[in-house]
Amino acid sequence: MATEIERRFLVRDTGFLTGNTGEKIVQGYVAKEAGAMTTRVRIRGERAYLTLKGPSLDITRDEFEYPIPLADARQMLARYCGSRIIEKTRHIVEHAGQFFEVDVFHGRHAGLIVAELELAHPGQKVERPAWLGPEITRDKRYGNFALASGDTTILSILSPTYIHPFRHSASSRADSDPDITRVQ
Q: What share of the chain is helix, strand, coil (3-state, %, to 5)?
């Protein structure tokens, strides 16, 4: 069993992403009940994973992740995730020996950019680059499950400082995405 320890931040400036192509991610959520594990299906590039995450305890939680066949992931996204799907491009950005995962969201969350930093332990010091905005680690509204579940108000609560429309397409690509085959 692995334990995920991470901190999350909004991104105030995207200039540091110039020239960084990132990797496309499509992920969906099969099920979640209050206090229960989250079941996530993720396609990252040409790889796919099934992930189970326990409830958050401050900034830590249990995480179990398993590689699965790409065709299985596509089928699970299409049959079992419904509209609980998010699309993003992940950029790995190094700063002061730390590796931030910077997620640029697409579709209904276009304009949202979140930086995550995995930590070795909860008290680990974080060297904050100038492009980081406010911390959102404990704000459940910014969790991927909350975003996938249809909370479209997230962009309406953001200050214009943290909305980056020039980096994204305003329309969702889920209906034309080859990684998602809709089942009627």
A: 20, 40, 40
pLDDT tens per residue across span 65-80 = 999 999 999 999 999 9
> Whole-angstrom Cα distance, residue 12 to residue 161?
6
Question: Is residue 177 situated within a structural domain?
Answer: no
Within a domain: 181: no
Q: Supply φ then ψ for residue 21, to 5 degrees.
A: -75, -30
Report yes or no on 80 lying in a domain.
Answer: yes
Range of the domain at 116: 2-172
Evaluate whether residue 48 is within a structural domain: yes
How many independent structural domains does the chain possess? 1
**Count of other CB atoms within 10 angstroms of residue 136:** 18
Each residue of 137-183: pLDDT tens digit? 998 888 898 889 875 555 555 666 666 643 433 333 334 444 433 33
* Identity of residue 111: G
3-state secondary structure of 17: helix
Residues 51, 164, 53: CA angle, nearest 5 degrees: 15
CATH number at residue 143: 2.40.320.10
